[in-house]
Structures are given as structure tokens and as C-alpha cells.
Write a structure and sequence with these properties.
Layout: H1 2-23, H2 25-34, H3 40-58, H4 64-81, H5 91-116
Helix pairs in contact: 1-2, 1-3, 2-3, 3-4, 4-5
Length: 117
């Protein structure tokens, strides 16, 4: 029961994050542009869709693995293209990106645990 509630909360987290990509589209797109992503607008829209689909699928046991795959794809791409702390010159920016890099790896680990446990 507790595992189910926690997975639902995790799914809601991803769904809200996905909607944020659409709600704050310009801000997220500008951030993606600064990070040098190819086609920032398309990247932001695709990321939002992956997050929403993945969050919903994560909460449905029959398609949970598809959700984990979707979210893992997003996290791997975002972690290594957006949160590039190693190129940051400013200490505060480097710290912020390193924290987001580590957070994404922790969430990815959690998703893999859910998928394989």
C-alpha cells in the first residue's frame, strides 16, 4: 500500500514537471537555448510530453515499464545535456547544476529500482 502511494506521488511529480514545461514554455525554452540544445522549443515540448506520459504510465501497473523507459530517457538526456556543471565557471551556478545532476541520477536510480524490484 505504501509503495503504491509513493509511486503515485512520484508520478504526480513528473506530471506536474511536464505541465511546467508547457506552462512556463518560454522560460524553459530560453534555459534550453542557453544550454545549446538543438531546437530548444521542440526539445522542451518533447520533454514535457515524455514527463506527462511517463508520470501517468508510472501510476498504471500494466504500462509502468513504458513509463520508466520514458522518464529514464528524459532524465538521461536532461542530466547530461542540461546540467553540465563541469562547464560552469561561476561557483554558484556550478553548485546548482551539480545538485540537479545528482538529483536526476538519484531519481533515475529510483526508477530503475521500481522497474526491477
Amino acid at each position: 500500500m505504501i509503495k503504491t502511494v509513493l509511486i503515485i506521488l512520484l508520478g504526480v511529480f513528473f506530471i506536474l514537471n511536464g505541465f511546467n514545461h508547457f506552462y512556463n514554455e518560454k522560460m524553459v525554452e530560453e534555459y534550453a537555448r542557453k544550454r545549446g540544445l538543438f531546437s530548444p522549443r521542440l526539445s522542451v515540448m518533447a520533454a514535457g510530453m515524455l514527463l506527462i506520459f511517463g508520470g501517468i504510465a508510472l501510476m498504471i501497473p500494466a504500462v509502468r515499464i513504458a513509463g520508466i523507459v520514458s522518464l529514464s530517457v528524459f532524465l538521461i538526456i536532461a542530466t547530461f545535456t542540461i546540467h553540465t556543471f563541469w562547464v560552469e565557471k561561476e561557483k554558484q551556478a556550478r553548485l546548482g547544476e551539480a545538485m540537479n545532476f545528482a538529483k536526476n541520477l538519484a531519481i533515475l536510480t529510483e526508477l530503475l529500482y521500481i522497474g526491477f524490484a
